[in-house]
Amino acid sequence: MSAEIITLGHGSGTGLTRKLILEIFQPLFAMPSLEDAAQVGERTIITTDSYVVKPLFFPGSDIGELAVNGTVNDLAMKGARPAFLMISMIIEEGLPMATLKKIAGSIASAARKADVKVVAGDTKVVEKGRGDGIYITSSGIGYLPCDLELSTRLIRKGDMILINGTIGDHAIAVINARNDFGLTPAPQSDCAPLHEIVSNLLPDKDIHFLRDATRGGIAAIMNEVYAETGLGIILEEERIPVRREIEAVCEMLGLDPLYLANEGKMTVFCQNNDEHILRKMRKHPLGRAAAIIGEVTDSVKGVYLRTLMGGLRPCPMIESDPLPRIC
Amino acid sequence: MSAEIITLGHGSGTGLTRKLILEIFQPLFAMPSLEDAAQVGERTIITTDSYVVKPLFFPGSDIGELAVNGTVNDLAMKGARPAFLMISMIIEEGLPMATLKKIAGSIASAARKADVKVVAGDTKVVEKGRGDGIYITSSGIGYLPCDLELSTRLIRKGDMILINGTIGDHAIAVINARNDFGLTPAPQSDCAPLHEIVSNLLPDKDIHFLRDATRGGIAAIMNEVYAETGLGIILEEERIPVRREIEAVCEMLGLDPLYLANEGKMTVFCQNNDEHILRKMRKHPLGRAAAIIGEVTDSVKGVYLRTLMGGLRPCPMIESDPLPRIC
Question: How far is residue B20's CA from residue B266's CA, in Å, rounded to a whole number?
Fold first, then answer.
């Protein structure tokens, strides 16, 4: 590894994080994949994620709800029914008790909505200046309803790529909360539990792979799929749902929505026989704006966006996210 | 709650942590107990713990090994065979890559020794000055070998209390590493995985409850047992194994070894019929210095130490640990 120290980019969920995992963690650990979830036993999925989002509260969500939904979604993406959560907190000395209570309340409410039980936890406190309010690690366990495989190994040339709604909302909500660009109304995070919309879709042999588009956005997912399958991907700009106000902020800041984190969006890779999966997605409240956004192909090497002008723009894996601590 | 902000004491694992759990977390969450492990399903135990020990490396161990053994021990204390771990890291920007590699290597080596697989993980990075090198959250899953209950509910008057060896080693090793009291040789942490010595003991109907004596030391365990059972406890000072050099440091610093954290020690509450459990413990390398250190009784209310002089000294639950970030 060329870099000799850890940089913010190593936590971006994109290229540098991938390098850390490939070069340091995977050779040492028994991790079957680069993912943060793993199957243990016949029907059990476990997953873990730390949350360091800044600020702790932002329009549409907060670190507590994020910690629940993020872990619920990691389980759901494997096809598992989320069942139990564990919450471990690293609190900075001086955090107002009222803030902790609010976050704990938010965790409880999100857990109720996602029908999971918080069954265990841990609390550590670090000195002022050695943390940032609170960091939360949530770990979860979920159960597969049946023998179910969802894997990049199943992805084939011609597979359609779907998304359940607009992209970029979470990242822009957090950046706006951090910098106060004075947008009215303030953009809202899309933070939501995806287990229900997933359970409406599964089991379905046409569905090959699910992945929630968090850090690194949909571009990171597409590049991972390309890296693992060797198959190219063409996304269609005109089909990718982006709210007008999110697009405007992106233009202002020079950000590309494809690379922005979401917390309630997933991509579905499925066989392209008819549009029954799209129709099912649209029936769920979290899939109203679902769309077919691209295709797996062997006509290109890598990930490309067909722009509104008809050209093919490359969307490479980036080394680092321009927006640290987005989740 | 009277305190309006979080203090270091809230992470001490003693009185204030207990208050947080009782007053904030338990009413909101579905936590069946105050512990950091929970049974889910018939034979499955899950657990989570964050590690913020300072410094990251100290004689006898480091944060990586601690994160593995701590979680392995939480599973073992429930009688479960530890099987899988997940490791989530919150790294401070600027951590040397070599340090991360060393810690990852230490995690891998400890996992091998404890016969658990690290199957998933997550990496987040926070800005310089918002962390302290690295914080690690490890979560684990383990399986009960048979229908097995280990609970404070089973503890009865007359139960013996055993420990598998000397107390205070871990805490003094860490404090000495932090302050450099110039002790030669430097005290070593007792960090060790206890799953094997536990599996040599179980199943055994005479064993009612196991608990590893981490934050808050054996005094915290005894006070929790008293709080949950209403039964008094008398510890025998002359029987509690403490290394001479640890005792000397404790005297110098005004610390009580009963309240110090260990990372390879467990207390066993068992029926007092013969000493077969003590004999079994002593057969294992981690139990060579095992001893019967006290008894559950209704002759006192609370936790007491029978001193070398023969008096009964109260050992109450303390609000806060004098040594923050010990694990």
Answer: 24
